[in-house]
Specification:
THF_DH/CycHdrlase_CS; 2 domains; NAD(P)-bd_dom_sf; Bifunctional protein FolD; 9 strands; Rossmann fold; about 280 residues; alpha/beta; one-carbon metabolism; amino-acid biosynthesis
Amino acid sequence: MTAKILDGRAISATILDRVTKEVDEFVREHGRVPVLATVLVGDDPASHTYVRMKANRCAKVGMQSRRIELDATISTETLVAQIRQLSADPEVDGILLQHPVPEHIDERAAFEAIAPSKDVDGVTRTSFATMAFDEGGFHSATPGGIMALLDAYDIPLAGKHAVVVGRSPILGKPVGMLLLARDATVTYCHSRTVALADHIAQADVVVAAVGRPELIRGDWIKPGAVVVDAGYADNSGDVEYDAAAERASWITPVPGGVGPMTIATLIAQTIRAAYEHEREKA
């Protein structure tokens, strides 16, 4: 068996084409351009690359990207004040705080300064709660992108056993909640899990969300399983790709799988936020 590819680049392009039309319509209706504010703290090269990619995608669909760069030495209080200012700015529709921030900053406090109506990256407690209770709100961007990718290929989830490897508040935990909402049976694995290989071997769907290159060996994968690799470190994913592809039915490449879907989800949620802000004004 050789796995079919869950092509995030192709599906994200389709999403962005749709968003471009939505932005054009929004500008005609409301006479303004939707704005995504990106907040970047420090000089991490990867973070600068990610923010630049997001700005390029904004420009491609006709949105404006407002980039705020802050020194790595700033305090949590200064960062929170900056984000609160953006939250109160009526011209800003979405806010992205690029993760990670320097270690001395309380990242959770900074996330919680984002107004829920502008949390297009889905990082606040409010967004997590509304997502977990299936009450609307914004999905965490990477988990939302994963679900959109699975949907695009009609991957069945109801009744399937999904194993999520990783429990971060912006990836592992929320993707498990989204899978649960689709009637999958969800197992969370993490750094203290005993016999990880045994859990993986039972999974119909594996979501790897750790950031440790090839942590998950290909021969652990159940024949016919769907493998979603959301990890990325040292130019590699969390899954031993070549070996896993020989056993899986579907698999995401790294790069080109989950990454493009994350950005597409962020952009799609920004135009949605812009429309919601206009409805609130009416």
